[in-house]
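Forum: Protein Structure Q&A
Topic: Joint prediction for protein chains with partners

I've read a bunch of threads here and the consensus seems to be that you should model interacting components together rather than docking separate models afterwards. I'd like to see that in practice. Below is the full input, 239 residues plus whatever partners are listed. Could one of the regulars post the assembled result?
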Amino acid sequence: MNADAPRPLVECRGLAKHYGEGEARVDALKAVDLDLWPGEVVGLLGPSGSGKTTLLNLIGCIVEPSAGTLHLDGETVWQGKWLRPDLRRLRLEKIGFIFQFHNLLPFLDVSENVALVLDMAGRPKAEALTRARELLDYLEVGHRRTAKPSSLSGGEAQRVAIARALANRPRIILADEPTAALDGERAGIVMDLLRKVAVEQSATVVVVTHDEKIWDRFDRIFALRDGRIVTQDTPRRRP
Ligand SMILES: Nc1ncnc2c1ncn2[C@@H]1O[C@H](COP(=O)(O)OP(=O)(O)OP(=O)(O)O)[C@@H](O)[C@H]1O
Ligand SMILES: [Mg+2]
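Posted by a regular:
Agreed with the consensus. Here's the joint model:
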């Protein structure tokens, strides 16, 4: 293969996950093949229990696959076992995760929550706080910078979690219902930011959503049903 040929950032081959064994076995994801390219924003749809979060958790190296192969950024990450000993570092450097439940740390304020990943990556504190401020302002939650997560509204917490996921400029961004708690205008701001990140950082963005307001924002849409990708669509993007 030509070493200079473009490669997907995420390559899933026959990727599967089951939980439990015997009677209790649940096949959450069944042999998924999926390529995700730099610069694209992809939607993932499907009914509750169809495997959307499981797929994000596998790509994000949070949950171990049961079968198949996972390549991230040209590197085989899982094949029968994890092939990278330092998964934490891999996640820190390459992956931005926006969880369904925001998972903000309650004892840190908003700025500190966002700056934390940069601290962990060894960036100077002042730089981390400047980056946090920039993202929070863009997402219109800058005025809540010194608040503790428990005092935020659902939509504010969601935007802080988005800022945190993007702080480290990851190239693989996995978002589980990132606009669920937002009105149309704010959902639009979030999708604009995700698009900007995809383009400027050559990142790939996967968004799980039921939100019809944002369907025209995707380059491709996949639908999952019972753990399989059943349809693929290419909606026409807004000019
Ligand atoms: N840790 C777990 N242990 C056992 N079963 C699990 C676990 N996590 C998920 N499952 C099961 O795997 C299947 C897929 O779950 P998943 O969370 O991926 O669905 P989803 O598409 O994200 O649903 P929702 O839209 O409700 O968030 C479901 O049947 C679920 O009950
Ligand atoms: Mg889910």
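Helices lie at 52-59, 87-94, 110-120, 125-138, 154-166, 184-200.
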